Amino acid sequence: MPAPKVFKNFINGKWVEPATGEHFENRNPANHKELIGLFPKSGREDVENAVAVAKEAYKSWRLVPAPKRGEILFRAGQLLVERKESFAADMTREMGKILDETRGDVQEAIDMTFYMAGEGRRQFGQTTPSELPNKACMTVRSPIGVCSLITPWNFPMAIPSWKVMPALICGNTVVIKPATDTPLSAIHLVEILEQAGIPAGVANIVTGTGSAVGTPLMTHQDVRVVSFTGSTEVGRTVSKACADTFKHSCLEMGGKNVIMVMSDANLDLAVDGALWGGFGTSGQRCTAASRVVVDKKVYKTFVERFVARARALKVGNGADPSVQMGPLINESQLRTVEQYVEIGKQEGATLLAGGSRLRGGEYDCGWFHSPTIFGDCHPKMRIGQEEIFGPVVSVIPCDGLEDAIEIGNGVVYGLSSAIYTQDVNKAFTAMREMETGIVYVNASTIGAETHLPFGGTKLTGNGHREAAVAALDFYSEWKSIYVDYSGKLQRAQMDT
User: Fold this and answer.
1) CB 201 within 8 A of CB 53
2) Any residues with CB less than 8 A from the CB of 469 and at least 6 apart, and which?
3) 419 domain residue, yes or no
4) What is the domain-level CATH number for residue 273?
5) CA 432 remoteness from chain centre
6) 318 is in which domain, residue-wise?
7) Nearest by Cα to 154 from 328, 381, 374
8) 229 and 243 share a domain?
9) Are residues 15 and 163 in the same domain?
10) What is the C-alpha radius of gyration for the chain, rounded to an integer number of angstroms?
11) What CA–CA distance (Å, rounded) separates 78 from 197?
12) pLDDT tens string 40-71
């Protein structure tokens, strides 16, 4: 066997070995015999080095005109377009989702990069009349400093781009810590920035575990901004760590998203949405539709169609174009799904499809689970309340719109929701009443676009939003400026 490829950290414009001298393996979740490569098992010293150079680079990067920063990002977007297919293939190997989805992941990074490149010329402030004569008032955006960006494994290039590109266009410098399950895609993104001409020290990447790399990054005294995407449990730790030094923190965390199917819905379309929402990315999305609330008048018909379609899904290696659902990310996640299936059975839900790990042939070399549907679920069952992050969907009967909304809002999360209906009144009622940061009408709970804010309410987030112009509000601070050209002392609120 050929020697595995050994990757490095990117610090101060150079690819360098970790100070620890140690590496960890990254394997294909569809075939764990395939070693993707060895990646730096970094430690505190690597974090110290990366933050130090990012702090120094910030002094000059913040002074680069924003349109010029945008030109670098635009070149990065062009390079991503050229490398899209190869990056998608690598992502399928390291993360497992099917090629169509990994192409979409890279495309999202392309979209975000081009979008934020344009924001280099659109970081608008406000001008407003003063209450005093011969005085001008305005606001401008100011960068903040070094940003620690901690990213998950399910969107290993898209989510890093959500964080990196707005941070850079605002004039900040970054240190990225990708998930240990998917470091390659984040490294590819940094390679693109390097080729696009990003100055040394502005963008850095350090791979390793959460305890050895993530914790020092979120507690470092020279880090001013922490952006984290992951579980609510870890997000709470990040929030506490940032509180001591009043760092800015953006937390994108869990979800228990709902599709509401009304009696007047186009049922075939609703089944399409439930199938895509529940089993796209093997259910490993924070926006996955793990609950489907269906009006009792159409419950039986919907369930029959939904179950038939789920049973027909082809599960396998995502590199196979005919495969419709890939593996779970690792053995631990697969076991979590198995545990929740048992919980669903014990709670009295009716197992309608799937319910087990897939075995035999290629399945024995990967972490595969069948698409699973539970019917006749009560809204308060654990499988209807807790985030599973796998291909398990709970179908819950309801009595009309008001009941559906109450069930939909009856969880601790508030990321994404969807309603299928032909009644505009029901649609607008749901848009108003759903306690989620994202609402879809006649579409599934997944499919956010980069030019709209992304984020949720309740235990899903801490109020900030990623993507779109909203991201600029997190990665910059407003500065109010007053210019008095009256030639005399004027006292606001006093001199009239």
Assistant:
1) yes
2) 119, 453
3) yes
4) 3.40.309.10
5) 24
6) 258-441
7) 328
8) yes
9) yes
10) 24
11) 13
12) 999 999 999 999 999 999 999 999 999 999 99
